[in-house]
Amino acid sequence: MKVDGKSRILVAARTVISRHGSNRATVRAIAEEAGMSTGAIYHYYKNKDDILYDLLDESLSDSTRIAKGIAKQELGKDKVKKEILQKTEERLKKDAENRLQYHFAHEILLGNKELQLKFKQKYKEWTFRIEEILINVYGLEDTRLNQALTSWLLGAIDGVILQYLLDVNDNDVEDMMEVFELLLEKGLPPFIQLLNDK
Amino acid sequence: MKVDGKSRILVAARTVISRHGSNRATVRAIAEEAGMSTGAIYHYYKNKDDILYDLLDESLSDSTRIAKGIAKQELGKDKVKKEILQKTEERLKKDAENRLQYHFAHEILLGNKELQLKFKQKYKEWTFRIEEILINVYGLEDTRLNQALTSWLLGAIDGVILQYLLDVNDNDVEDMMEVFELLLEKGLPPFIQLLNDK
Amino acid sequence: MKVDGKSRILVAARTVISRHGSNRATVRAIAEEAGMSTGAIYHYYKNKDDILYDLLDESLSDSTRIAKGIAKQELGKDKVKKEILQKTEERLKKDAENRLQYHFAHEILLGNKELQLKFKQKYKEWTFRIEEILINVYGLEDTRLNQALTSWLLGAIDGVILQYLLDVNDNDVEDMMEVFELLLEKGLPPFIQLLNDK
Amino acid sequence: MKVDGKSRILVAARTVISRHGSNRATVRAIAEEAGMSTGAIYHYYKNKDDILYDLLDESLSDSTRIAKGIAKQELGKDKVKKEILQKTEERLKKDAENRLQYHFAHEILLGNKELQLKFKQKYKEWTFRIEEILINVYGLEDTRLNQALTSWLLGAIDGVILQYLLDVNDNDVEDMMEVFELLLEKGLPPFIQLLNDK
DNA sequence: TATGAATGAGGTTTCATTCAT
DNA sequence: AATGAATGAAACCTCATTCAT
């Protein structure tokens, strides 16, 4: 079955961006990886940014699907926690995907407004899903600090991912997850109670 | 008093890299900001990367000094907590400095080994300082998961900083700090107890 | 009724080249406008230049037909003058057609010999027609400067058309035509007498 | 004496643009002609258009200076006419300069607004100078059609220049000038009288 | 020390043209 | 007849770095 051009380019771009040590994700490099000429790229995409957008869309959709999946389930609370633990562990290990996301972050830092907007939108959705879970599973009430709490949780995961990408975190993922599990099981419940009581 | 060349260049580089929207930190831009010619830059530095290294050194030293300062103090526990809160709040607000650090992160992701090593070294030192504080202030014992815990704490702060840089975190810094304070005051003690009991 | 491929391409090319603001008349643009693929273009034409040649032929034939039409008519002198005035006014207003002609001019300036030859041939014919009219209507005799006079007349019209294309001529076409009419009616007769007397 | 970079580039650009048969005035070609690398060009000019603007400025300033020079002189009428004839003849023969101006015209046709504005401004000034001359030398009064008349005169010259550039005008410049002289000497006076009487 | 002109490799993008289907 | 994916050369431009002065 022939794979269509856009898909090939996206796969190649993802590969190139993720490749450790890859100097830069140039159009030339993407084209080479995709096995086409640079000109061919422009047959499918108007410009380089458009490739990035598609890639981001894909990448963000994945994350969102997972977040939604967990939040929407009519599972027992224990199952939800297990689900979160598993997905988080998987994410810590998805080097390529994480590398990609930080590539986007860098683009945004360089001033790419369009990318920033897309990212912000998705981030809002994620915090919303997390909040949903905290409410359903942990009994979080509607406090003034709900959003701040979810931001800290999301931030912690992102921060640890970055540590792994930069290779400055020597802990086994299993150890990190053990602490995380303890947090979810025993740490969060009383902490959320504190917030509710405020 | 004449400021020496290297200092001028470092200040200029910091400014240029941090400048919001500055698309690229070119040698030309740094030279211009420093009020010298591009050629002059190469009198003081062998190449552009060397500027980065010095800058990273400076930047990391700052952070380390703060961490050391807090850990070494023979202060009462309350004072230490206040110190941490204040420094953390300050850091969340130091846009330029944070932007700089993520610039380094990006360079490392692109495969700059030398930078990576320096970063790793410093990161080790930070986690050590944090652990020290957790031991002195919170009575953390020598558990197998000490390092994982400190990594989560450091990661959370880095992750939230990144959220602010990317402008995807709409919470006031004050709200974020309120949750953080609650964590330090009421959340951590029982959590550390759990770890000790394991 | 099916329109044959070449015609469709010519119409499309004319449209694209003439389109105000159209930055470039690419084969792709022509193909799109013609509702076919780029490949199809090359079924009908060996290369892009050949399209231009055909287009020029068409365009020049139009002008020539008009010139011939006026010259050949066994009309009264007044009718001929009216005819000239009307056709000239029409031409000043045909933005698309004029834009096309200056596109050809540009190609010639870039060194396209073939185009140059075709153009030259047609230009000769036009000056011949104009001369014919000057002889029949104004009684111009066979002077040494006949050709120079016709060149000035043709040149004036071309120059003014260019002014309009470049949007540097703010006069109403009606004002321009009023002066032109005065020239044809009252200015040329004595001037031609002068030439005859030389 | 060392020639400064901008001058060298301008001279080279002028040469390249003017060169008959030159396929296109690319930055590479200009750099080659100037004896520098393409990168060096960008040391002096932000982009290619800026070179064009400088070139146009120069070119237009020349024309304007000539127009001003003629108009401002407190010369006798005969001297002014001689001056006009001489300058016009010179211009018909300046192939390189004329080629340059039509290159600008083409850029404007492609939609370069900035260039268009500069051109329009200068064109206004020229028509003003011509009108001045017509008033001082030929006694033209303040009629409604003054501007239209000057546009025709300017247009005629531009049109004839284009004929020469395209090599479709086989007349000797001398013959063209003879007709032009006759126009200035004998043709214009009665024609302007007609306009005044309207 | 210092300048800034110059290089050259490499970036993104455009486009006429070819060719398997 | 027709498609449209693909090529490859060449366009403009950027930038770390070198070097004569």
Report on the structure:
The first copy, chain A, is mainly α. Chain A folds into two domains: 1-45, Orthogonal Bundle (Arc Repressor Mutant, subunit A), CATH 1.10.10; 48-197, Tetracycline Repressor, domain 2 (Orthogonal Bundle), CATH 1.10.357. Helices cover 79% and strands 0% of the residues of chain A. Chain A has nine helices and no strands. The mean pLDDT of chain A is 90. At the A-B interface, α6, α7, α8 and α9 of A face α6, α7, α8 and α9 of B. The structure holds a DNA duplex (21 and 21 nucleotides).
How would you sum up this structure in a few lines?
The structure is a homotetramer of 198-residue chains. Chain A is mainly α and 198 residues long. The first copy, chain A, is built from 9 helices and no strands.
Fold-level CATH name of the largest domain in chain A:
Tetracycline Repressor, domain 2
Q: What's the Cα radius of gyration of chain A?
A: 19 Å
User: Regarding CATH, which class of the largest domain in chain A?
Assistant: Mainly Alpha
- Name the chain pair whose interface involves the most residues: A-B, 55 and 55 residues
The chain-level structural class of chain A is mainly alpha
What's the number of domains of chain A? Answer: 2
Protein topology:
The structure is a homotetramer of 198-residue chains.
Chain A: H1 5-18, H2 27-34, H3 38-44, H4 48-72, H5 77-93, H6 95-109, H7 113-138, H8 146-165, H9 173-197
Helix pairs in contact in A: 1-2, 1-4, 1-6, 2-3, 4-7, 5-9, 6-7, 6-8, 7-8
Chain A binds a DNA duplex (21 and 21 nucleotides) through α3.
